[in-house]
Amino acid sequence: MNLESPKVQVEKSAAYLFEALTDIKNFEKLMPDNIAKFEVIDENCFEFGLKGMPEIKLVKKEATPHSKVVLGAASSKLPFTLTAQLDTVSDATTDVQLFFEGDFNPMMAMMVKGPIGKFIETLASNMHKL
User: Fold this and answer.
1) pLDDT averaged over every residue in the chain
2) Of 21, 42, 83, 89, which one has the greatest count of Cβ atoms within 10 A?
3) For position 54, which CATH number holds?
4) Which SUPFAM superfamilies match (predicted)?
5) CB-based burial of residue 87 (10 Å sphere; 0-12 exposed, 13-18 middle, 19+ buried)?
6) 42: confidence class by pLDDT, cuts 50, 70, 90
7) Is the pLDDT of residue 51 over 90?
8) CB-based contacts of 76, cutoff 8 Å, min separation 6
């Protein structure tokens, strides 16, 4: 299952956004209002929970300076990645788009597609808070 957020333009440099996204404690600023838990496990891992949803642990998997940050599920039960793609528009403006890729059975995909789509859209629209 592949989902993508709308592309958002942020009035920050790609270098600034890359540094902010590789510091995982900053993901708390991007979370939706209905967050029930956010806990930093270490510099590469955090766990969060939204009301009515199971808690999810994310680990930083890959970071390509100033262009891409990839987070993945810490558990192999529900394998997925969340990729932030950064595209420089100017020295002080960057386009950001989030991509979700998950390997779910069709029933699970049908159940989670809506909530995950809304979740990554919220993360993207909150990028200006970094």
Assistant:
1) 95
2) 21
3) 3.30.530.20
4) Bet v1-like
5) middle
6) very high
7) no
8) none
Residue 54 contacts residue 112 (beta carbons within 8 Å): no
The whole domain housing 66 covers 2-129
Structure tokens at 36: 């029930």
**Nearest partner of 69 among 61, 79, 77, 57, judged by Cα:** 61
Number of C-beta neighbours around residue 77 at 10 A:
6
What letter would DSSP give residue 55?
-
Task: Give the span between the Cα atoms of 25 and 46, in whole angstroms.
Answer: 8
Number of domains in the chain: 1
Q: Answer for the pair 67, 18: CB distance below 8 angstroms, yes or no.
A: yes
Check: CB of residue 128 under 8 Å from CB of residue 108. no
The pLDDT score that the predictor gives to residue 77 is: 80
Contacts with 77 (C-beta within 8 Å, 6 or more apart), sequence order: none
Residue length, the chain? 130
What is residue 21's predicted lDDT score, i.e. its pLDDT?
A: 97
Tokens of 42: 């270490």
